[in-house]
Amino acid sequence: MAQFDLPLAELETYRVDVDEPADFDTFWAGTVAEAREHGGGPELGRVDTGLTEIVVDDVTFPGFGGHPVKGWLARPAHADGPLPAVVEYLGYGGGRGLPHEWLGLAAAGYAHLVMDTRGQGSAGGSGGDTPDPVGSGPAFPGFLTRGILDPADHYYRRVFTDGVRAVDAVRQVDGVDPARVAVTGTSQGGGIAIAVAGLVPDLPAAAPNVPFLCHYRRAVQISDTLPYGEITRYLSVHREHADAAWRTLSYLDGMSFARRARAAGLFSVALLDDICPPSTVYATYNAWGAASTGVEREIDVYPYNGHEGGQGYRFTPTLAWLGKHL
What we know:
Strand order of the largest sheet: 1-2-3-5-4-6-7-8-9
Number of strands: 9
Protein name: Acetylxylan esterase
Number of helices: 11
Radius of gyration: 19 Å
Organism: Myceligenerans indicum
Structural class: alpha/beta
Domain Acetyl xylan esterase: 1-324
Order of helices and strands: HHEEEEHEHEHEHHHHEHEH
Strand content: 15-25%
Distance between the termini: 37 Å
Largest sheet: 9 strands, mixed
Pfam families: AXE1
Helix content: 25-40%
């Protein structure tokens, strides 16, 4: 794959007038408040992993609508004092998998909550355990067009709210410092992390890698690769739904959440990425913290990579960055 998007010099200054609904803040404040009204805290059950230096709990917490959402919480076995925590969100189609697959951050001294993604976990890996009990009208296979005619019904309204409630949940765990909680994720997980950073104003840090769910219009214009191609294929059939669909997606665009973020942001982008095109990432990165002042942001660029981005090479620099902010 060759570089197909804007040159790097243009990407670095690429900004977009965000197509944002007037009631964006009201919509999301009401959504989060409604979810929190269901109350409830995380339920933890220790898992026998055979590990001696890491302890893992099977976590269930109330998400959107009070629906139970699963996760793994891994921590150092012999920790003293409240731990900083990282909430991690998963890539498209993936599930929380098996507990021993998530040891790196716990080994580095963090409480690490991996949130299962509702309705996903069957596209590969070791599976997921969280159903989505909410139905959908006609949709193209995948998740982007589920509930696309009304933002109140859209799938990602539920997922982003689950992400907020995951932060709420880890902050209630004994032995976790609620003031030192960061969010991270790759691809879809990066998009969820961006949304959560825009909805939880007191997060100190967010680290989205090659994020999905950003600048949908641009993505559809320059790439027909799935998952953004789900939007194109749906609208190629339901031609009369274009205005309603784009209105719904305007409530879910990472650019709008990024503007409201107050956390320090560490992004990554790959210049050959035709799944999450570089301009969609940069539009969001360049909007990061725009509604506030003094918000720190930085981005790591992988000129010769596609959607895999930095993969394992991200771990060490991200650890150093987390250590600075948590």
